[in-house]
Amino acid sequence: MTQSPGSRVILHLDMDAFYAAVEIREDPRLAGRPLIIGHRGRRGVVSTCSYEARKFGVRSAMPSVTAERLCPGAVWLPGRMPLYAAVSRRIRRVLDEFTPIVEPLSIDEAFLDLTGVVAGLGGGSRRLRPVTTLEDGAAVGRLLKDRIRHDERLTASVGVAPNKFLAKIASDLEKPDGLVVLPIEAVPRRLWPLPVERLWGIGPRTAPRLHAAGLHSVGDLVASPAALLDRLVGPGTADHLRALARGQDDRTVESDRGSKSISEERTYGEDLRDPDVIDRALLARAEGVARDLRREGLVARTVRLKVRTGDFTTFTRARTLPDPTDLTEVIVEAARALLRDRIPLGQQGVRLLGIGVGGLQPVSARQSTLFVDSREDRARRAARATDSVRARLGEAAITRARLLRPPRPVRRTSPPRKP
Ligand code: TTP
Ligand code: MG
Question: Which atom, in ligand 1's list, is nearest to the CA of 176?
Fold first, then answer.
Protein backbone atom coordinates (compact mmCIF):
# COMPACT_ATOMS: atom_id res chain seq x y z
CA MET A 1 0.00 0.00 0.00
CA THR A 2 1.19 3.50 -0.70
CA GLN A 3 0.86 6.16 1.94
CA SER A 4 1.51 9.83 1.84
CA PRO A 5 4.73 10.93 3.48
CA GLY A 6 4.29 11.93 7.10
CA SER A 7 1.31 9.64 7.58
CA ARG A 8 1.20 7.78 10.83
CA VAL A 9 0.79 4.17 11.89
CA ILE A 10 -1.33 4.04 15.04
CA LEU A 11 -2.30 0.85 16.84
CA HIS A 12 -5.11 0.44 19.37
CA LEU A 13 -5.17 -2.64 21.55
CA ASP A 14 -8.07 -3.75 23.71
CA MET A 15 -8.14 -6.96 25.70
CA ASP A 16 -11.13 -9.23 25.14
CA ALA A 17 -13.62 -9.57 28.02
CA PHE A 18 -10.70 -8.64 30.20
CA TYR A 19 -11.71 -9.46 33.82
CA ALA A 20 -13.68 -12.49 32.68
CA ALA A 21 -10.84 -13.76 30.49
CA VAL A 22 -8.38 -13.51 33.39
CA GLU A 23 -10.75 -15.48 35.63
CA ILE A 24 -11.17 -18.16 32.96
CA ARG A 25 -7.41 -18.41 32.61
CA GLU A 26 -7.13 -18.90 36.38
CA ASP A 27 -9.85 -21.56 36.36
CA PRO A 28 -10.15 -23.24 32.96
CA ARG A 29 -13.33 -25.05 34.12
CA LEU A 30 -15.08 -21.73 33.46
CA ALA A 31 -14.17 -21.80 29.77
CA GLY A 32 -17.13 -21.88 27.41
CA ARG A 33 -19.63 -20.93 30.13
CA PRO A 34 -21.51 -17.69 30.59
CA LEU A 35 -19.47 -15.88 33.24
CA ILE A 36 -20.40 -12.55 34.80
CA ILE A 37 -18.01 -10.44 36.85
CA GLY A 38 -19.93 -8.31 39.34
CA HIS A 39 -21.99 -8.43 42.50
CA ARG A 40 -25.41 -10.00 42.33
CA GLY A 41 -28.42 -8.44 43.95
CA ARG A 42 -30.48 -5.32 43.79
CA ARG A 43 -27.66 -2.80 44.00
CA GLY A 44 -25.06 -4.65 41.96
CA VAL A 45 -23.91 -3.90 38.42
CA VAL A 46 -22.10 -6.01 35.85
CA SER A 47 -18.41 -5.15 35.41
CA THR A 48 -18.04 -7.37 32.38
CA CYS A 49 -18.94 -10.83 31.18
CA SER A 50 -17.68 -13.59 28.92
CA TYR A 51 -18.74 -13.63 25.27
CA GLU A 52 -21.00 -16.61 26.09
CA ALA A 53 -22.95 -14.37 28.49
CA ARG A 54 -23.11 -11.59 25.89
CA LYS A 55 -25.18 -13.90 23.67
CA PHE A 56 -27.92 -13.54 26.27
CA GLY A 57 -27.71 -9.75 26.07
CA VAL A 58 -25.66 -9.21 29.24
CA ARG A 59 -23.46 -6.08 29.05
CA SER A 60 -21.03 -4.04 31.16
CA ALA A 61 -22.69 -1.54 33.50
CA MET A 62 -26.03 -3.38 33.35
CA PRO A 63 -27.89 -3.74 36.69
CA SER A 64 -27.19 -7.22 38.04
CA VAL A 65 -30.92 -7.96 38.41
CA THR A 66 -31.35 -7.46 34.67
CA ALA A 67 -28.38 -9.71 33.94
CA GLU A 68 -29.77 -12.41 36.26
CA ARG A 69 -33.05 -12.29 34.39
CA LEU A 70 -31.41 -12.43 30.95
CA CYS A 71 -28.96 -15.19 31.81
CA PRO A 72 -30.15 -17.21 34.80
CA GLY A 73 -27.55 -19.94 34.26
CA ALA A 74 -24.48 -17.69 34.49
CA VAL A 75 -21.61 -18.18 36.90
CA TRP A 76 -20.96 -15.02 38.95
CA LEU A 77 -17.63 -13.90 40.39
CA PRO A 78 -17.05 -10.71 42.38
CA GLY A 79 -13.84 -9.69 40.64
CA ARG A 80 -10.25 -9.34 41.87
CA MET A 81 -8.82 -5.95 41.01
CA PRO A 82 -5.25 -6.55 42.25
CA LEU A 83 -4.97 -9.55 39.95
CA TYR A 84 -6.30 -7.66 36.90
CA ALA A 85 -4.04 -4.71 37.68
CA ALA A 86 -0.99 -6.99 37.82
CA VAL A 87 -1.87 -8.54 34.46
CA SER A 88 -2.40 -5.07 33.03
CA ARG A 89 1.06 -3.97 34.21
CA ARG A 90 2.70 -6.96 32.59
CA ILE A 91 0.90 -6.32 29.31
CA ARG A 92 2.04 -2.73 29.52
CA ARG A 93 5.64 -3.90 29.72
CA VAL A 94 5.13 -5.91 26.53
CA LEU A 95 3.70 -2.84 24.78
CA ASP A 96 6.72 -0.82 25.90
CA GLU A 97 8.98 -3.25 24.08
CA PHE A 98 7.31 -2.33 20.79
CA THR A 99 7.37 1.46 20.95
CA PRO A 100 8.32 4.22 23.38
CA ILE A 101 5.00 5.95 22.66
CA VAL A 102 2.28 4.12 24.57
CA GLU A 103 -0.83 5.91 25.82
CA PRO A 104 -2.87 3.76 28.17
CA LEU A 105 -6.60 4.55 28.12
CA SER A 106 -7.83 2.15 30.75
CA ILE A 107 -6.81 -1.05 32.51
CA ASP A 108 -7.11 -3.05 29.30
CA GLU A 109 -6.56 -0.72 26.35
CA ALA A 110 -3.85 1.50 24.94
CA PHE A 111 -2.79 3.43 21.88
CA LEU A 112 0.66 2.85 20.39
CA ASP A 113 2.31 5.14 17.88
CA LEU A 114 4.35 2.81 15.70
CA THR A 115 5.40 5.35 13.09
CA GLY A 116 9.04 4.77 12.28
CA VAL A 117 9.77 2.38 15.12
CA VAL A 118 12.09 -0.42 14.21
CA ALA A 119 10.64 -3.89 14.48
CA GLY A 120 11.37 -7.39 13.29
CA LEU A 121 8.69 -7.45 10.64
CA GLY A 122 9.10 -10.98 9.48
CA GLY A 123 9.18 -11.93 5.85
CA GLY A 124 11.17 -15.07 6.60
CA SER A 125 14.31 -13.35 7.80
CA ARG A 126 12.53 -11.28 10.49
CA ARG A 127 14.61 -8.38 9.27
CA LEU A 128 14.64 -5.28 11.44
CA ARG A 129 13.25 -2.28 9.63
CA PRO A 130 11.13 0.76 10.42
CA VAL A 131 7.36 0.65 10.34
CA THR A 132 6.12 2.86 7.52
CA THR A 133 2.87 1.36 6.25
CA LEU A 134 -0.33 0.11 7.82
CA GLU A 135 0.66 -3.40 6.71
CA ASP A 136 3.86 -3.05 8.76
CA GLY A 137 1.62 -1.96 11.63
CA ALA A 138 -0.51 -5.06 11.16
CA ALA A 139 2.63 -7.21 11.30
CA VAL A 140 3.51 -5.58 14.62
CA GLY A 141 -0.09 -6.14 15.75
CA ARG A 142 0.26 -9.85 15.01
CA LEU A 143 3.53 -10.04 16.97
CA LEU A 144 1.92 -8.20 19.86
CA LYS A 145 -1.11 -10.49 19.95
CA ASP A 146 1.13 -13.56 19.80
CA ARG A 147 3.24 -12.28 22.68
CA ILE A 148 0.19 -11.62 24.85
CA ARG A 149 -1.32 -14.99 23.98
CA HIS A 150 1.96 -16.70 24.77
CA ASP A 151 2.93 -14.79 27.92
CA GLU A 152 -0.51 -14.25 29.46
CA ARG A 153 -2.73 -16.83 27.75
CA LEU A 154 -5.16 -14.02 26.90
CA THR A 155 -6.49 -12.64 23.64
CA ALA A 156 -6.45 -9.04 22.54
CA SER A 157 -8.11 -7.23 19.67
CA VAL A 158 -6.03 -4.82 17.64
CA GLY A 159 -6.84 -2.02 15.23
CA VAL A 160 -4.27 -0.40 12.95
CA ALA A 161 -5.01 2.88 11.21
CA PRO A 162 -3.52 6.25 10.30
CA ASN A 163 -5.02 7.88 13.41
CA LYS A 164 -6.36 7.22 16.91
CA PHE A 165 -10.04 7.43 16.09
CA LEU A 166 -9.89 4.90 13.24
CA ALA A 167 -7.56 2.60 15.19
CA LYS A 168 -10.04 2.47 18.06
CA ILE A 169 -12.95 1.83 15.71
CA ALA A 170 -10.90 -0.89 13.99
CA SER A 171 -9.99 -2.79 17.16
CA ASP A 172 -13.67 -3.17 17.92
CA LEU A 173 -14.79 -4.36 14.48
CA GLU A 174 -13.83 -8.02 14.81
CA LYS A 175 -13.77 -8.66 18.53
CA PRO A 176 -12.75 -11.02 20.08
CA ASP A 177 -9.22 -11.86 18.92
CA GLY A 178 -9.50 -9.43 16.00
CA LEU A 179 -6.86 -7.71 13.91
CA VAL A 180 -8.27 -5.07 11.60
CA VAL A 181 -6.42 -2.60 9.41
CA LEU A 182 -8.55 0.43 8.62
CA PRO A 183 -7.08 2.68 5.94
CA ILE A 184 -8.88 5.87 5.05
CA GLU A 185 -10.18 4.27 1.82
CA ALA A 186 -12.15 1.75 3.87
CA VAL A 187 -14.01 4.43 5.84
CA PRO A 188 -17.18 4.38 3.69
CA ARG A 189 -17.45 0.62 3.88
CA ARG A 190 -16.53 0.10 7.55
CA LEU A 191 -17.23 3.32 9.43
CA TRP A 192 -20.31 4.73 7.71
CA PRO A 193 -22.62 1.80 8.56
CA LEU A 194 -21.91 2.21 12.31
CA PRO A 195 -24.28 4.14 14.58
CA VAL A 196 -23.52 7.86 15.05
CA GLU A 197 -22.83 7.17 18.74
CA ARG A 198 -19.48 5.75 17.70
CA LEU A 199 -18.18 9.23 16.89
CA TRP A 200 -16.31 10.77 19.81
CA GLY A 201 -18.40 13.61 21.11
CA ILE A 202 -21.83 12.10 20.51
CA GLY A 203 -23.13 11.19 23.94
CA PRO A 204 -26.49 10.41 25.46
CA ARG A 205 -27.57 14.05 25.14
CA THR A 206 -26.69 14.55 21.48
CA ALA A 207 -27.66 11.16 20.09
CA PRO A 208 -31.46 11.49 20.49
CA ARG A 209 -31.38 14.87 18.76
CA LEU A 210 -29.57 13.36 15.77
CA HIS A 211 -31.90 10.36 15.67
CA ALA A 212 -34.94 12.64 15.72
CA ALA A 213 -33.54 14.36 12.64
CA GLY A 214 -33.16 11.00 10.89
CA LEU A 215 -29.40 10.69 11.43
CA HIS A 216 -28.75 7.18 12.72
CA SER A 217 -25.56 5.98 11.06
CA VAL A 218 -22.26 7.78 10.50
CA GLY A 219 -23.09 7.61 6.79
CA ASP A 220 -26.38 9.46 7.41
CA LEU A 221 -24.36 12.21 9.01
CA VAL A 222 -21.95 12.41 6.08
CA ALA A 223 -24.83 12.62 3.61
CA SER A 224 -26.77 15.23 5.58
CA PRO A 225 -26.77 18.89 4.56
CA ALA A 226 -24.13 20.84 6.49
CA ALA A 227 -26.71 23.33 7.72
CA LEU A 228 -28.74 20.58 9.42
CA LEU A 229 -25.86 19.31 11.54
CA ASP A 230 -24.71 22.87 12.27
CA ARG A 231 -28.17 23.62 13.64
CA LEU A 232 -28.40 20.40 15.66
CA VAL A 233 -25.04 20.52 17.46
CA GLY A 234 -23.54 23.93 16.68
CA PRO A 235 -21.04 24.63 13.90
CA GLY A 236 -17.90 23.85 15.96
CA THR A 237 -19.05 20.39 17.03
CA ALA A 238 -20.49 19.81 13.56
CA ASP A 239 -17.08 20.40 11.97
CA HIS A 240 -15.46 18.05 14.47
CA LEU A 241 -18.05 15.31 13.78
CA ARG A 242 -17.77 15.69 10.01
CA ALA A 243 -13.98 15.31 10.24
CA LEU A 244 -14.29 12.14 12.32
CA ALA A 245 -16.96 10.77 9.98
CA ARG A 246 -14.52 11.20 7.09
CA GLY A 247 -11.95 9.34 9.19
CA GLN A 248 -9.87 12.40 10.01
CA ASP A 249 -8.34 12.85 13.45
CA ASP A 250 -4.99 14.44 14.18
CA ARG A 251 -4.77 13.84 17.92
CA THR A 252 -1.36 12.57 18.88
CA VAL A 253 -0.65 9.52 20.98
CA GLU A 254 0.53 10.98 24.27
CA SER A 255 3.00 8.75 26.02
CA ASP A 256 2.52 8.76 29.78
CA ARG A 257 6.18 8.03 30.36
CA GLY A 258 7.99 11.29 30.59
CA SER A 259 4.43 12.59 30.87
CA LYS A 260 6.11 15.66 32.22
CA SER A 261 5.54 17.73 29.13
CA ILE A 262 7.71 20.76 28.50
CA SER A 263 6.16 24.05 27.49
CA GLU A 264 6.63 27.80 27.53
CA GLU A 265 4.10 30.52 27.01
CA ARG A 266 3.89 34.30 27.22
CA THR A 267 1.00 36.69 27.45
CA TYR A 268 1.51 40.04 25.79
CA GLY A 269 0.35 43.37 27.17
CA GLU A 270 -0.49 44.45 23.68
CA ASP A 271 -1.74 42.03 21.03
CA LEU A 272 0.95 41.04 18.53
CA ARG A 273 -0.07 41.77 14.95
CA ASP A 274 3.14 42.12 12.95
CA PRO A 275 3.88 38.69 11.40
CA ASP A 276 7.57 39.28 11.92
CA VAL A 277 7.13 39.97 15.62
CA ILE A 278 4.89 36.93 15.97
CA ASP A 279 7.49 34.79 14.23
CA ARG A 280 10.23 35.97 16.54
CA ALA A 281 8.05 35.22 19.55
CA LEU A 282 7.55 31.71 18.17
CA LEU A 283 11.27 31.27 17.72
CA ALA A 284 11.99 32.41 21.26
CA ARG A 285 9.47 29.91 22.73
CA ALA A 286 10.81 27.11 20.53
CA GLU A 287 14.33 27.93 21.66
CA GLY A 288 13.31 27.76 25.33
CA VAL A 289 11.53 24.46 24.92
CA ALA A 290 14.34 22.90 22.88
CA ARG A 291 16.90 23.95 25.45
CA ASP A 292 14.86 22.35 28.24
CA LEU A 293 14.71 19.15 26.20
CA ARG A 294 18.45 19.07 25.70
CA ARG A 295 19.08 19.79 29.37
CA GLU A 296 16.85 16.84 30.33
CA GLY A 297 18.37 14.56 27.69
CA LEU A 298 14.97 14.13 26.04
CA VAL A 299 13.59 14.30 22.53
CA ALA A 300 9.99 15.18 21.71
CA ARG A 301 7.66 13.48 19.31
CA THR A 302 4.92 16.11 19.16
CA VAL A 303 4.78 19.88 19.02
CA ARG A 304 1.82 21.77 20.40
CA LEU A 305 1.05 25.39 19.61
CA LYS A 306 -1.26 27.44 21.79
CA VAL A 307 -2.55 30.78 20.62
CA ARG A 308 -5.02 33.04 22.38
CA THR A 309 -6.35 35.80 20.20
CA GLY A 310 -7.39 39.33 21.14
CA ASP A 311 -11.00 38.19 21.55
CA PHE A 312 -9.89 35.49 24.04
CA THR A 313 -10.44 32.55 21.73
CA THR A 314 -7.84 29.92 22.53
CA PHE A 315 -6.56 27.52 19.91
CA THR A 316 -4.41 24.50 20.67
CA ARG A 317 -3.09 22.55 17.73
CA ALA A 318 -0.56 19.75 17.65
CA ARG A 319 1.39 17.82 15.11
CA THR A 320 3.50 14.71 15.23
CA LEU A 321 7.04 15.03 13.97
CA PRO A 322 8.39 12.48 11.54
CA ASP A 323 11.23 11.91 13.96
CA PRO A 324 11.70 12.90 17.63
CA THR A 325 13.76 16.03 18.13
CA ASP A 326 15.39 18.43 20.56
CA LEU A 327 16.25 21.02 17.93
CA THR A 328 14.90 24.57 17.92
CA GLU A 329 14.73 24.65 14.11
CA VAL A 330 12.55 21.57 13.88
CA ILE A 331 10.24 22.71 16.68
CA VAL A 332 9.81 26.24 15.32
CA GLU A 333 9.11 24.91 11.83
CA ALA A 334 6.33 22.70 13.18
CA ALA A 335 4.92 25.63 15.16
CA ARG A 336 5.04 27.89 12.10
CA ALA A 337 3.20 25.33 10.03
CA LEU A 338 0.53 24.97 12.70
CA LEU A 339 0.10 28.73 12.92
CA ARG A 340 -0.08 29.10 9.17
CA ASP A 341 -2.34 26.17 8.38
CA ARG A 342 -4.38 25.44 11.45
CA ILE A 343 -5.14 28.66 13.26
CA PRO A 344 -7.68 31.02 11.74
CA LEU A 345 -6.28 34.26 13.14
CA GLY A 346 -8.43 36.40 10.84
CA GLN A 347 -8.25 40.02 11.92
CA GLN A 348 -7.31 39.10 15.48
CA GLY A 349 -3.98 39.84 17.09
CA VAL A 350 -2.11 37.39 19.31
CA ARG A 351 -2.55 37.85 23.05
CA LEU A 352 -0.84 34.67 24.20
CA LEU A 353 1.60 32.38 22.46
CA GLY A 354 2.86 29.08 23.77
CA ILE A 355 4.79 26.10 22.47
CA GLY A 356 4.73 22.73 24.19
CA VAL A 357 6.27 19.40 23.33
CA GLY A 358 5.06 15.93 24.23
CA GLY A 359 5.70 12.31 23.47
CA LEU A 360 8.96 12.71 25.33
CA GLN A 361 11.56 9.98 25.37
CA PRO A 362 15.19 9.72 26.34
CA VAL A 363 17.44 10.82 23.50
CA SER A 364 19.11 7.41 23.64
CA ALA A 365 15.82 5.67 22.86
CA ARG A 366 15.47 7.21 19.43
CA GLN A 367 14.50 4.12 17.57
CA SER A 368 14.26 5.23 14.01
CA THR A 369 17.89 5.03 13.13
CA LEU A 370 16.85 5.60 9.54
CA PHE A 371 16.33 9.25 10.27
CA VAL A 372 19.65 9.93 11.89
CA ASP A 373 21.25 12.07 9.26
CA SER A 374 24.54 13.76 9.73
CA ARG A 375 23.12 17.23 9.12
CA GLU A 376 20.80 16.77 12.05
CA ASP A 377 23.59 15.39 14.20
CA ARG A 378 25.69 18.43 13.38
CA ALA A 379 22.84 20.73 14.32
CA ARG A 380 22.45 18.91 17.60
CA ARG A 381 26.16 19.19 18.40
CA ALA A 382 26.04 22.91 17.65
CA ALA A 383 23.01 23.33 19.89
CA ARG A 384 24.72 21.48 22.73
CA ALA A 385 27.81 23.66 22.38
CA THR A 386 25.63 26.77 22.54
CA ASP A 387 23.83 25.44 25.59
CA SER A 388 27.08 24.85 27.42
CA VAL A 389 28.40 28.34 26.60
CA ARG A 390 25.16 29.78 27.91
CA ALA A 391 25.39 27.68 31.04
CA ARG A 392 28.88 29.06 31.75
CA LEU A 393 28.59 32.64 30.58
CA GLY A 394 24.95 33.39 31.11
CA GLU A 395 21.89 33.89 29.03
CA ALA A 396 23.07 36.91 27.03
CA ALA A 397 26.27 35.26 25.81
CA ILE A 398 24.67 33.80 22.72
CA THR A 399 21.41 34.95 21.25
CA ARG A 400 20.03 34.10 17.88
CA ALA A 401 20.61 36.96 15.48
CA ARG A 402 16.98 36.71 14.53
CA LEU A 403 15.93 37.43 18.09
CA LEU A 404 18.05 40.60 18.18
CA ARG A 405 16.63 42.15 15.08
CA PRO A 406 14.26 45.05 15.77
CA PRO A 407 10.68 44.62 14.65
CA ARG A 408 10.13 45.83 11.14
CA PRO A 409 7.68 48.63 10.70
CA VAL A 410 6.23 47.26 7.48
CA ARG A 411 5.06 43.81 6.44
CA ARG A 412 7.79 41.69 5.06
CA THR A 413 7.37 40.85 1.41
CA SER A 414 10.48 38.78 0.83
CA PRO A 415 11.97 36.09 3.04
CA PRO A 416 14.53 37.34 5.57
CA ARG A 417 18.13 37.17 4.44
CA LYS A 418 20.40 35.00 6.49
CA PRO A 419 22.27 37.28 8.91
P1 TTP B 1 -13.82 -3.15 28.24
O2 TTP B 1 -12.61 -3.23 27.39
O3 TTP B 1 -14.86 -2.12 27.93
O4 TTP B 1 -14.59 -4.54 28.22
P5 TTP B 1 -14.02 -6.00 28.16
O6 TTP B 1 -12.54 -6.03 28.03
O7 TTP B 1 -14.55 -6.76 29.34
O8 TTP B 1 -14.71 -6.59 26.87
P9 TTP B 1 -14.38 -6.29 25.35
O10 TTP B 1 -13.95 -7.60 24.77
O11 TTP B 1 -15.66 -5.79 24.77
O12 TTP B 1 -13.29 -5.27 25.33
O13 TTP B 1 -13.42 -2.94 29.74
C14 TTP B 1 -12.26 -3.54 30.31
C15 TTP B 1 -12.54 -3.98 31.74
O16 TTP B 1 -12.95 -2.88 32.51
C17 TTP B 1 -13.63 -5.00 31.82
O18 TTP B 1 -13.14 -6.32 31.68
C19 TTP B 1 -14.21 -4.73 33.18
C20 TTP B 1 -13.95 -3.27 33.44
N21 TTP B 1 -15.20 -2.51 33.26
C22 TTP B 1 -16.01 -2.27 34.37
O23 TTP B 1 -15.67 -2.67 35.49
N24 TTP B 1 -17.18 -1.58 34.20
C25 TTP B 1 -17.61 -1.13 32.98
O26 TTP B 1 -18.68 -0.52 32.85
C27 TTP B 1 -16.75 -1.38 31.84
C28 TTP B 1 -17.17 -0.89 30.46
C29 TTP B 1 -15.57 -2.06 32.02
MG1 MG C 1 -11.58 -4.86 26.58
Answer: 10
Spatial contact of 303 and 339, defined as CB atoms under 8 Å apart: no
Domain 261-403 has CATH 3.30.1490.100: yes
How far apart (Å, rounded) are the C-alpha atoms in residues 296 and 294? 5
175 CA: nearest ligand 1 atom: 10
For domain 191-245, which architecture applies? Orthogonal Bundle (1.10)
Please report the pLDDT score of residue 360 as a whole number: 83
Q: Give 157-166 pLDDT, tens digit per residue.
A: 999 999 999 9
For β-strands 128-130 and 35-38, DSSP reports them as: unpaired
Residues near 374 by Cβ (< 8 Å), separated by ≥ 6?
none
**173-230, pLDDT tens digit by residue?**
999 999 999 999 999 999 999 999 999 888 888 999 999 999 999 999 999 999 999 9
Span from the CA of 107 to the centroid of ligand 1 (angstroms): 9
What's the CA-to-centroid distance between 159 and ligand 1, angstroms? 17
Query: Which member of 23, 52, 103, 109 is catalytic?
Result: 109
The string of pLDDT tens digits covering residues 199-210 is 988 888 899 999
Taking the CA of 172 as reference, the closest ligand is 1
Residues measured by CB to lie within 5 Å of ligand 2, the ion: 14-15, 18, 108
Q: Is 109 labeled as catalytic in the residue annotation?
A: yes
The Cα-based distances of 64 to 19, 42, 58, 77 in angstroms read 16, 7, 9, 12
Q: Domain spans of the chain?
A: 1-184, 191-245, 261-403
Q: Closest ligand to 19 CA?
A: 1
CATH level 3 topology of 1-184: Alpha-Beta Plaits (3.30.70)
Contact call for residues 162 and 184 (beta carbons, < 8 A): yes
Q: Contact at 8 Å (CB) between 391 and 382?
A: no
Q: Which atom of ligand 1 is nearest to the CA of 19?
A: 18
Ligand nearest to C-alpha 177: 1
Ligand 1 cavity residues, CB under 6 Å: 14-19, 47-48, 60-61, 107-109, 175-176
Distances (CA, A) of 244 to 131, 188, 197, 276, 308: 25, 12, 12, 35, 25
